[in-house]
Amino acid sequence: MTRQLSRADRLIHQFDTVLRTLVPHAAQPERPSPAGSIADEPMTEAEREHAEGLMRINHTGEVCAQALYQGQGLTAKLPDTREQMEQAAQEEIDHLAWCDARLQELHGHTSVLNPMFYAASFGLGAVAGAVGDRVSLGFVAATEEQVGRHLDAHLRELPVADRRSRAVLEKMREDEAHHERWALEAGGTRFPTPVKLGMRLVSKVMTNSVYRF
Ligand SMILES: [Fe+2]
Ligand SMILES: [Fe+2]
């Protein structure tokens, strides 16, 4: 009976996370947005549009992170590191909510492609988790490395006036570096360069499509 209940509980929790990830403005952060009371400088329409596109990419990246952690949570054993993984997943919810809020401020919308990227990332996470914990953690580390590279590029590309987005991305950058370190220290495999290059190619497709849609 207990076992059935806990399985039902897990299913409800999973479904709840899917909804909170995919329904705009549904994610509730545990930490306040780093944008806080920072004031923006005036932006031109072209600058606002560019900032919107970049923040939409970052939002979708967090949708993928959420799906990845969820997919792995389903199949990975992670006897010693599950708690840390759940902590990281919670921090990704903060990122998701902060990006969502910033997109709203920029009068932008989240990507219509999010459900597709969610499903793909969930599947990849579940496969990695099923292969083994070292691969699963290695996948987290490689993904976080990739996300870090994106964030660095976006921090360079953001309009100087967009100080609120910058504050959000800087805090995210710090958290993602911490996730990457944790996944490697927990025993994650370092992925070979060709695999990382493949991941970079996939993320290029994602960023190009999500910037506009
Ligand atoms: Fe994140
Ligand atoms: Fe992360």
UniProtKB/TrEMBL annotation:
> What's a single GO MF annotation on this record?
monooxygenase activity
How and how many cofactors are bound, per the record note? Binds 2 iron ions per subunit.
Q: Provide the reaction this enzyme catalyses.
A: a 5-methoxy-2-methyl-3-(all-trans-polyprenyl)benzene-1,4-diol + AH2 + O2 = a 3-demethylubiquinol + A + H2O
> Which cofactors, if any, are listed as required?
Fe cation
Query: InterPro entries attached here?
Result: COQ7_proteobact (IPR047809), Ferritin-like (IPR012347), Ferritin-like_SF (IPR009078), Ubq_synth_Coq7 (IPR011566)
CDD domains given in the database record? DMQH (cd01042)
- Identify the metabolic or biological route this protein is part of: Cofactor biosynthesis; ubiquinone biosynthesis
Compartment(s)? Cell membrane
Record: residues binding Fe cation 2: 92, 144, 176, 179
What family does the database annotate? Belongs to the COQ7 family.
Q: Would you tell me the protein name for this molecule? A: 3-demethoxyubiquinol 3-hydroxylase
Q: What is the organism field in this record? A: Litchfieldella rifensis
